[in-house]
Amino acid sequence: MGSRRCYDWNHREARSKLTDTLSVEERSKRMSLIRCVGSGPEMKLRRLVHGMGFRYRLHIKGFTGKPDLVFPSRRAVIFMHGCFRYRHEDCKLARLPKSKLDFWEDKLEANRQRGLLKQRQLRDPGWRVLVVWECEMVDIDHVSIIVDEFLRGQVVEKMKSVELFAGAGGLAMGISLAGFESLAVVEWDKRACETIRENQKRGYPLVRDLPLWEGDVRHFDWSSVTEEVDLLAGGPPCQPFSMGGKHRAHGDERDMFPPMIEIIRRLAPRVFIIENVKGLTRSSFANYYQYILLRLEFPEVTRKSGETWMDHLSVLQKEKTSGALHHGGLTYNVVPTLINAADYGVPQKRERVFIVGFRSDLGIDWSFPRPTHSFDALLYSQWISGEYWDRHGAPRPSREDMPKRLKNRIMALSDTIPSFGQKPWRTVRDALMDIPDPRDASSREFYNHDFQDGAKTYKGHTGSPLDLPAKTLKAGDHGVPGGENTMALKDGKVRYFTAREAARVQTFSDGYVFPVSWTETMRQLGNAVPVSLARRVAASVAERLAEIEIHRASSSWIRNAA
């Protein structure tokens, strides 16, 4: 290879005199057809990286250098370089044309230098850069090793989070998966803390290093949190608003919204995530719900001594319309959203309110992530394509078995070409597909997978169907309205979910154990945020926070270049 390169340089002058058979216009047209974005190798790299479990952003507007893949939470980027365009050294794909040698050498050398400049501009503010060459994509296994070592191998500065009302750890684990590092995790319930500590002892990676503090959030020493908090998250106790509770709202001593808002005021996190029950949006709570949202928007407009919450609501409403009292202090852009967890891949119909607020000075517009799964896609896979049954090795049902109330909906789907852009809802069968019946001897291989006797059916409580997402898991006793911790069997009977099955329905890993009774485990799981849902929301927030750094870096480069 070395002698060939020497020959090329020694004959540069002679080759430069060869005539191009194309006109300037024709040559320009052909060069314009060479794809820089969305090329075959780039698409292959995207699929590889996505399949490895890494999530990325594409071609972010205003981001200097225009890397092909951006990993905001890891402060890393990947360029997919064409070997010819960027003069990959000693590569046969970078061989120069035989005509117009001077033109090509100057043009391609300029491309190469421009690529190197982009990499320097990214590395200077602390971004890590990997270049994958077109020729390397022939050996996909080799590229996967390089990418994995690049994205996992170096410790980078993580965004900081604080979790309140942590419970069994579902929200905290989802936030950890999204790339945050916890500064404090606060939970008052002794048995929930036992669950987290047991998993810490076992070395479970997502909770191993959590700084857990057992106690009331109102008694925690918040002055000990000295670093800037990027994310504050929590699910205040839902009993004051629960459909199955006594729902006394502001009159309930368990209402932890006021303490949480005070902590937001003290720590001024860049963003907060609050999760709560659907009952919070009940018409009977409308005024108090508005009060909560306005307090979150204006945390520094505090309630005076002796002032009722209704009087304080009036003050906040005036502030909202006039801004006369606040004078530009700490405020948040608050986005409340009612969602169904099944629409995000959780094998459970679980409606919850998420309240997300970005600090106003950040200038961020944010909306809740779009659903990734749908009921229509499930119906299509069950009743039209049959893919659902094939995947589970089960016989396809006949048209006579089609639910009458869904017949028109299914028939409408059969007349269209599927273009859902979403995956099917995940069902109980999906969640439990590789776990044995708890009455089988092989079930002993699974922790928390013991059979529970005594499940009964009665009006309104018939158990979760196998081929739909589970009904909402509840933390209360047997008979709590709106859901039940049982699954329906083929013979018309029901049985309780085992703790392990319920954990799967809440997307907890099999490696996460519950060292408490079945009843207590179900209470903890019923109160938990599904891990995968927490990850989805936290990752969306992390991406928007990272974009701030991207645009700051871009602005800095523009100023320096001017």
TrEMBL record:
<dbReference type="GO" id="GO:0009307">
    <property type="term" value="P:DNA restriction-modification system"/>
</dbReference>
<dbReference type="InterPro" id="IPR050390">
    <property type="entry name" value="C5-Methyltransferase"/>
</dbReference>
<dbReference type="Pfam" id="PF00145">
    <property type="entry name" value="DNA_methylase"/>
</dbReference>
<keyword id="KW-0949">S-adenosyl-L-methionine</keyword>
<keyword id="KW-0680">Restriction system</keyword>
<dbReference type="InterPro" id="IPR004603">
    <property type="entry name" value="DNA_mismatch_endonuc_vsr"/>
</dbReference>
<dbReference type="Pfam" id="PF03852">
    <property type="entry name" value="Vsr"/>
</dbReference>
<keyword id="KW-0378">Hydrolase</keyword>
<dbReference type="GO" id="GO:0006298">
    <property type="term" value="P:mismatch repair"/>
</dbReference>
<keyword id="KW-0808">Transferase</keyword>
<feature type="active site">
    <location>
        <position position="238"/>
    </location>
</feature>
<dbReference type="GO" id="GO:0003886">
    <property type="term" value="F:DNA (cytosine-5-)-methyltransferase activity"/>
</dbReference>
<comment type="similarity">
    <text>Belongs to the Vsr family.</text>
</comment>
<keyword id="KW-0234">DNA repair</keyword>
<dbReference type="InterPro" id="IPR001525">
    <property type="entry name" value="C5_MeTfrase"/>
</dbReference>
<dbReference type="InterPro" id="IPR029063">
    <property type="entry name" value="SAM-dependent_MTases_sf"/>
</dbReference>
<dbReference type="InterPro" id="IPR018117">
    <property type="entry name" value="C5_DNA_meth_AS"/>
</dbReference>
<dbReference type="GO" id="GO:0016787">
    <property type="term" value="F:hydrolase activity"/>
</dbReference>
<keyword id="KW-0489">Methyltransferase</keyword>
<keyword id="KW-0540">Nuclease</keyword>
<comment type="similarity">
    <text>Belongs to the class I-like SAM-binding methyltransferase superfamily. C5-methyltransferase family.</text>
</comment>
<keyword id="KW-0255">Endonuclease</keyword>
<dbReference type="InterPro" id="IPR011335">
    <property type="entry name" value="Restrct_endonuc-II-like"/>
</dbReference>
<dbReference type="GO" id="GO:0032259">
    <property type="term" value="P:methylation"/>
</dbReference>
<dbReference type="GO" id="GO:0004519">
    <property type="term" value="F:endonuclease activity"/>
</dbReference>
<keyword id="KW-0227">DNA damage</keyword>
<dbReference type="GO" id="GO:0044027">
    <property type="term" value="P:negative regulation of gene expression via chromosomal CpG island methylation"/>
</dbReference>
<protein>
    <recommendedName>
        <fullName>DNA (cytosine-5-)-methyltransferase</fullName>
        <ecNumber>2.1.1.37</ecNumber>
    </recommendedName>
</protein>
<dbReference type="InterPro" id="IPR031303">
    <property type="entry name" value="C5_meth_CS"/>
</dbReference>
<dbReference type="GO" id="GO:0003677">
    <property type="term" value="F:DNA binding"/>
</dbReference>
